[in-house]
Write a structure and sequence with these properties.
- The protein is of the alpha+beta class.
- The chain has a single domain, classed as START domain (Alpha-D-Glucose-1,6-Bisphosphate, Chain A, domain 4, 2-Layer Sandwich).
- Helix content is 24%, strand content 47%.
Length: 156
């Protein structure tokens, strides 16, 4: 059996909010708030969402695709650990994503918050290795663009 090489990629996404840094940080760090924009969605059922927001703490999201999606019944799992937290400034996580218990990627995600005079600028940096062609940098970037869009909606 031949193994495909991992695909590596880094991308940055920037969003501007007309809200103070503290409000954005809360949406990233409070379990009930994060579950709404990060875990919930119309195309899947959340089976588990646990979040222990502290350095060394973990976050686990398990979701099952519904009949609207390709591979209905497929289970996605995201396991993350918080590597660095600077209150109101920065959050860094390392995570693996699995599809039906097969690891498809490992990533490092950094959220940075900057007051910009009229609100907050959020800079999100995602670095990842994608395995066995199960996911692509383009798919992941699109997924994060949608998630940050959901974050914007939750903050309004």
């Amino acid at each position: 059996m031949s193994q495909k090489p991992a695909v590596h990629n880094t991308f940055d996404l920037t969003r501007k909010f007309s809200l103070p840094v503290e409000r954005i940080f809360e949406a990233l760090s409070q379990p009930a708030a994060k579950r709404k924009w990060f875990a919930e969605g119309e195309n899947h059922e959340v089976l588990q969402f646990d979040m222990d927001f502290r350095v060394g703490g973990t976050e686990r999201t398990v979701s099952r695709f519904n009949e609207k999606m390709p591979f209905p019944g497929a289970v996605f799992t995201n396991n993350a650990v918080y590597l660095e937290i600077t209150h109101g400034t920065r959050i860094v996580t390392a995570a693996t994503m699995s599809f039906n218990q097969n690891c498809i990627s490992a990533s490092l995600a950094t959220f940075e918050l900057f007051p910009d005079g009229t609100g907050t600028e959020l800079v999100f940096t995602h670095q990842a290795a994608y395995f066995e062609g199960s996911d692509t940098p383009e798919m992941r970037r699109g997924g994060w663009e949608k998630l940050l869009g959901k974050l914007e909606i939750e903050l309004v």
